[in-house]
Structures are given as C-alpha cells and as structure tokens.
Amino acid sequence: MLQDYIATYLKKAKYERISGKQFYAEIKELRDVSATGKSREECRKNLASTLEGWIIFRLRRNLPIPFSFNF
C-alpha cells in the first residue's frame, strides 16, 4: 500500500529543468515535497526519498496524510 501511495504521487509530480542541467520536481498536492537532481531520473529518485521522509514525519507526529485516489 505504501509503495502504491508513493508511485501514485510520483506520477503527479511536475518536473522542470533549472540552471542548465539541473532538474527540479514537486508534488503540489503535498506541501514541501520537492527535490532536485542532475538528471530527471536522479530527481525522481530524490523526490521518492523526500516523499518517504515526508510520510514518516507525518506518521510520527500523527498528522493527516491526504489520499486523493483509490487503491
């Protein structure tokens, strides 16, 4: 279920090239979930890691985790 959540939100990510060869991505539905990378793939991996950390942070503090899709 957690992998499905991460995969679903990674599909919603918006990517853009910044400062030459650097990429930036964010998931607008999830506040503060963004990442950068030297390639789009590295950026996606970094974004997945950021999203995992975001989920853990929210679970530890009993904060809500939005669900905008059905499994």
Please describe what this structure looks like.
With 71 residues, the chain is an alpha+beta fold. The protein has a single domain, classed as Double Stranded RNA Binding Domain, CATH 3.30.160.250. It contains two helices and three strands. It has helices at residues 2-11, 40-60; strands at residues 14-18, 22-26, 34-37. The protein has a three-stranded antiparallel beta sheet, covered by helices on one side. Strand 1 (14-18) and strand 2 form a beta hairpin. The longest helix is centred in the C-terminal third of the chain and has 21 residues, at 40-60. The chain starts with a helix and ends in an 11-residue tail after the last helix. 13% of the residues are buried. The model has no long low-confidence stretch (mean pLDDT 92).
Rg, alpha carbons: 12 Å
Query: Which CATH architecture?
Result: 2-Layer Sandwich
Biggest sheet: strands side by side, in what order?
1-2-3
Number of helices: 2
In terms of DSSP E residues, the strand content is: 15-25%
**Structural domain count:** 1
What is the C-level CATH assignment?
A: Alpha Beta
Main pleated sheet? 3 strands, antiparallel
- Outline the low-pLDDT stretches: none
- At the fold tier of CATH, the topology name is Double Stranded RNA Binding Domain
The helicity comes to 40-55%
Which series of helices and strands comes N to C?
Answer: HEEEH
Mean pLDDT: 92
Given the helix and strand composition, which structural class is it? alpha+beta
Number of strands: 3
Distance between the termini: 8 Å
The general outline is elongated
